[in-house]
Every structure is written in structure tokens, then in C-alpha cells.
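user: Please supply your own:

assistant:
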Amino acid sequence: MTFVARMESRIQGFAAIGELKWHVWDGVVADLWDVSCGDNAEGYYVSPDPRLFVALDIDGDGAFVVEGAQGEPRRHNQAFSIAYIPAGVPIRGRVEGLKRIRHLDLHFDAATLTRRFGRSLDRDALQISRLQFRDDRIATLAGLIAAECGSEWNLHDLYGEGLLNALFACLFQIDRPSAARRRSPLPRRKLRLVTDYIDAHCLDRIRLADLAALTGLSETAMSHAFKAATGVPPHRWQMQARIDRAKAMMAHEAASLGDIAQATGFFDQAHLTRVFKSVVGLTPGAWMKSAGRR
């Protein structure tokens, strides 16, 4: 079965330079974009599939600014600046002082990724947004993938799939199966410090560095130990805390779902609905009916 990338987008101020170049590999669609940017160029994007954005060339003294659900701006102002956006996470992007941007978009099927890497893949890592980062290995691989998209004579698909496997292994820190090991859970006292902090600040942007500082562990060790103790990663605990706030508002207030989404840190009503259903198993409307609200 051929994987088809699907993404809702509303953009203005961008104009394609030449034709879109693209390539489809097993479970991955790669789009190579080259666009000119107007003064007020901006866009809204949400995809049902995970997506990797890699800026290849940037012309101008400004930046392409990406904002997630919490409104935290991340500036892409140089080549090989990277963003990873999980499935269903809406983002807004705007241009500040750029004339042109050439970038690679990788849309991929999470089920295919699981089939490729099996239990070595931490599926919770697929849910963690990384709206701006740099990685030399990923940059090199993305450049080779972009070159393959732009080539008139494509090599065997195993070449591109090999590049993608290497990129995903770097992106999600996928170990060899023999490297898998049982993670030690956070001790009860440290776990209480972290959960109390997340519950108190669930509407704010919480950094892994802040949580790690509470435990005296590295960010990676803290994240693994937290999941070993609770069964979910820290960001998922935060989403559950936000959903609890939304439930309380739905049960006791007459606010609209749009107002509740804004008050509980979600991008919009659609974003709240997607996360609510993934956490609770019901849409907000169905949950309110089950709770006796109409």
C-alpha cells in the first residue's frame, strides 16, 4: 500500500519557485520546496502524520518563526535548522525578513516506522514536539535525501530507504535491539516532586531541563525513569493534567469548547478535541453526555 501524505494548511504570502519536487519511499513522502516569501507570509499547518521540516537554504536576514500550541516561538534563521512536529499537532509559521526559503518536508507513517524498527522504537518519542533544533547527522542525511528528490535520475529505492532509516535512527535515538534494557523508575519522593510540578504548571511550557533539575538526573534519564514509574512520558502527564482542567470546566462552567481550549493551553477547539479523545477515549461532547451535561 502506498503511503499518501495528508496535511491541512492555510497559507498566504508564499509563492513556489519552479515545480514541487518530491519522492515516495516505503511509508515516507518527501517534498522539496523552494518558495519566495512576501512581507506578511504566514501559514497554519496540521497533519494527521508525523512530519520533519529541514530548512536547506534561507535567503535574508530574518527567520521563519514556528509557534506551537503554547505559543512558544522558535526561529529558523540558518540552513539545516530542523523541526519535528508530531501527528495532529497544529503549528503556525510566519516569515520575518526572509526573501526565500528552500526546505525539505518528510511526512511519514508511524505504523511503517514501527514495522521497520519494531520494539526498538520508543513510540512515545513520536509524540514529543521539537520545534527547533540542529543535528549534524540529520542535516547530512536530509541534504542527501533532498538531492535524491531533486535528481532527474533516481537511484534504487534501497538507497533512499537506507538514508531514511539512518535519519529516523538519529531522530528518535533508536538503539540496537540488544541494547534494550529495563529502566529504573523514579523513587517515590522524586516522582512526587515532578508530578506536583507538572500539575501546578500544566498550562505553562514545561521544559525537560526543569524536571531533570528537580531529580538531579539528565533529561534523558529523567524522562525514562518517569515513564518507568508512571507508564507515560512527562509530556503525556502534562496533557492529562490539562485534560483534567478541561473536564472541570466542562462540568461546572458554561464556557464554549473554544474558550475552554484557550484557557487550558490548547491551540484551538480541534486540537483540544483530538487530545481529549486520545486521552479519554471520547470526544468532549460524548464525555459531557456521559457525565450528564448537555
About this structure: The radius of gyration is 20 Å. Strands lie at 8-16, 21-25, 28-46, 51-67, 73-76, 82-85, 91-108, 130-133. Residues 234-252 form the longest helix (19 residues).
